[in-house]
Amino acid sequence: MIKRRFRLSKLLIYVLLIFASGFVLVPTLWMLSTSLKPIEDVMTTPPKWIPENFSFASFINIFRDYPFSDYFINSIIIVSISTIASIIVSCLAAYGVTRFKFKGKGSFLTFLLVTQMFPSIMLLIPFYHVLRSVNLIDSHLGLILVYISFTIPFCTWMMVGFFKSIPIELDEAAKMDGCGKLRTFLQIIMPLSLPGLASTAIYAMLTGWNEYMFALILTNSETMRTLPVGIAELNGYYKILWNDLMAASVISSLPLIILFIFFQKYFISSLTSGSVKG
Description:
MetI-like fold, globular
């Protein structure tokens, strides 16, 4: 009886996992299928999952007919710099919080958490006025600063959890061996925090890569648009070329897929590491 219940519960878990996987994969596979169809086959009835005539014309069109390369390069530059800056600042802040005693430490962490409770739309007008006053509207630096301000608070909280899981005795041993705080941080603590760094990097990159509203409002010229804004502008006034739109979406997904593949082992290990510790 116990074995039967165990098998039944295991079967139920597998069914739920298959359903959840299908719920996620079906839209992605349909996106890929549509991007490989010629325009005359996109709206056929009944729809076909596997195109009869495979065509890569959509992938050529988005680079030939639209400034898609500008969108892609802008996103790469802005997201890469903001991600690296967020990781550096959040790691230093988290290390200071977990290794040093100072007044207001609890209030500082609470303040970081509270900043994530407000909707980002509230900050749109203040950010716009600040960036306009320093002539950073329609610039890479302006969006980089905005994305950094979004990601640093939560990245700091994530890294605090990981640094707390690393015994402080390692710092004390390094100090006895003559290592300073910075050397201890770089050579001992950081290598042990690779799962946390992977999770933090993925979070920061996802936040910037998919951000739409601020990129739309804080950029004016076509050549400064990022991928989410550029893809949205592929919608025409009188018609929508769904195959071109899906091809652009496929290409915009590739960097995130590649990032997750390279950091997968660190990301999975982080699920049972410091990120779940208080």
